[in-house]
Amino acid sequence: MCEAPSHFYILQNNEPTIQAMTPALSISHLRKVYARGTVAVDDLSLDIAAGDFFGLLGPNGAGKSTTIHCITGISTVTSGEIRIFGVDAVKNYREARRRIGLSPQEFNVDTFATCRQILDWMGGYFGMERAERKRRAEMLIEKFDLVPHATKQFRELSGGLKRRVVLARALIHDPDLLILDEPTAGVDVELRMDLWRYLQELNHDGKTILLTSHYLEEIERLCRTIAIVNKGKIVQHGPKNEFFTEPGGLEEAYLRATGATPERIAAAAGR
Amino acid sequence: MGASINWVGLLTIIRREMTRLLRVPIQAFVAPWISALLFIFIFGYVVGGRISQIGGHSYLEFVLPGIVMLNVVNAAFLQSSSQVYFARFMRYVEETLVSPLSYVEMISGVLVTVVFRSVVTALGILVIAALFGASSVAGVGEFVFWVVGVAIVFGLLGNLVGLWANNFEQLTILNVFFITPLSFVGGVFNTIDMLPSWLQWMAWANPFFYFINGLRHSMIGFTEAPELLGIGVTIGLGAVMFVIVWRLYAIGYGLRE
Q1: Which residue from A92, A106, A169 is facing B91, i.e. has the nearest CB?
Q2: B76-131 pLDDT tens trace
Q3: For the stretch A62-81, what's the b/e string if a residue is b when 16 or more beta carbons lie within 10 angstroms of its beta carbon?
Q4: Domain range spanning residue B86?
Q5: Mean pLDDT throughout A45-59?
Q6: Which residue of A has its CA nearest to B1?
Q7: A63 interfaces chain B, CB cutoff of 8 Å
């Protein structure tokens, strides 16, 4: 396991192996300072291999969402470099963004729009022609069991259905890199299982996935590579199996990396 | 950055905003038409019936361009400021921020809806005025220039305010304290020489005077200022506003965290 990574992992025979090739996502010395002086991300470097299922773990306020916002253009970058499949995400942002799909933590949707409109508009922003938008939208509406809700306004939907719409929206343009910021927050167990299955399918089909979550079980089950973020820095990073070579597994590693007290770590170990 | 225009993306922004606009037809179109009807009836027809002609035109014909311009300015400013502010407030602006749209495409998408709303508002007022026998348009091209040009200027100003405002109160400040007062003293109801001499210089420094005067010339041929000066002021303001708004988009002001 390493700190301040300068390399990334790629699957070979279903095992992550250190490789040097164009990563799906490469973040180098990223720093984000908000207007009031809060340092949200501090010299964060990270590479994610094409085809990886990468988990970003960290407590609230660790800098996970800010990192994602910097990658996708929702936040400006104070300093550092972000590359999407080798393309500079700031200088060549149009080219870089074509390859990213984002499912954000908070719903950023015109709540008066219908599910179908939300998908159609998003496909349009990405320059998809009408027939292609319609085909992809209908496929995703079916895939996410949204058929009975396709003409309902977003505000009329339950939390779980809203989450599905936002996830479908992230996939409308068939991105190569899918970024999911706590996609199963507020979702019931059944839907969570369905989403997990679908995400595994997508990853199996070649999509690179960056997932943030508070659920250790989710990260443990889905991801092949894991990074733990605390106070804007990556404090631990490596293939999932490396987290399980130490006693206590991912949970203890997480607690240690995020500065939990020895009593708390001991309590977790005793469970 | 790819230099090609994302036409589908631009058309999608326009479609989205048209959908949003047409959800509130009473607020967007019927309200200004009723307001214009009242202005035309009271000031043009009732009061105007007791006022002698101005420059060979009835008072109703004289005030009508001002009434049209007041409503064009309001329509443009309200459309763009609320469009941009609500997209920020409800956070769906992030949909466009994460997509491969250029800043020019984002701004143009706003402006097309602004121009549509302004033109429909203006045409509706002309229809209402026709019922009172006053809706002549002497120069159609010139009329279109003034309606579209002024709509773009105030669409850009509204865009700027939509980026700046952090609450609904701030969204209305410019309209209440600057746009409405300046437009009323810009010659809607009177000629410059009707003003006290100490106030006349202020009219020449007021861009609304050029907008109203230009539209009035396009409709009834009456003018108090050189045409080219007004056209220059409008194009100059539009260009300056566009550069400011484009720059604000580029640095992410009000849009990006």
Answers
A1: A106
A2: 999 999 999 999 999 999 999 999 999 999 999 999 999 999 999 999 999 999 99
A3: bbbbbbbbbbbbbbbbeebe
A4: 24-251
A5: 94
A6: A92
A7: no
Q: Is B97 close to A72, i.e. CB distance below 8 A?
A: yes
Residue-range definition of the domain harbouring residue A157: 108-174
For chain A, positions 18-37, list CB contacts with chain B under 8 A. Answer: 34
Closest CA to A42 of A50, A34, A54: A34
Q: What percent of chain A has pLDDT over 90?
A: 70
CA distances from B115 to A253, B14, B80, B138 (A): 58, 11, 10, 21
Find the DSSP H helices in A93-158. Answer: 93-97, 115-125, 130-143
In a domain, B257, yes or no: no
What's the pLDDT tens digit per position in B178-202?
988 888 888 888 888 888 888 888 8
Residue of A nearest to B16 (CA): A121
Domain count, chain B: 1
Q: Is A109 on the interface with B (CB under 8 A)?
A: yes
Q: For residue B91, list chain A residues with Cβ-Cβ distance below 8 A.
A: 106-109
- A261 and A167 assigned to the same domain: no
**Residues A186, A134 share a domain:** no
Residue at A3 is within a domain: no
| pLDDT tens for each residue of A117-160 | 999 999 999 999 999 999 999 999 999 999 999 999 999 999 88
| A249-268: average pLDDT | 78
Residue (of B16, B36, B12, B182) closest to B120 by Cα position: B36
Q: Is the ipTM of this complex over 0.85?
A: yes
What pLDDT, on the 0 to 100 scale, is given for residue B1?
A: 42
Is A2 a domain residue? Answer: no
Strands A87-88 and A8-12: unpaired
CATH code at position A38: 3.40.50.300
Mean pLDDT of chain A: 89
Residues A127, B8: C-beta atoms closer than 8 Å: yes
Domain final residue pick, A118, A151, A174:
A174
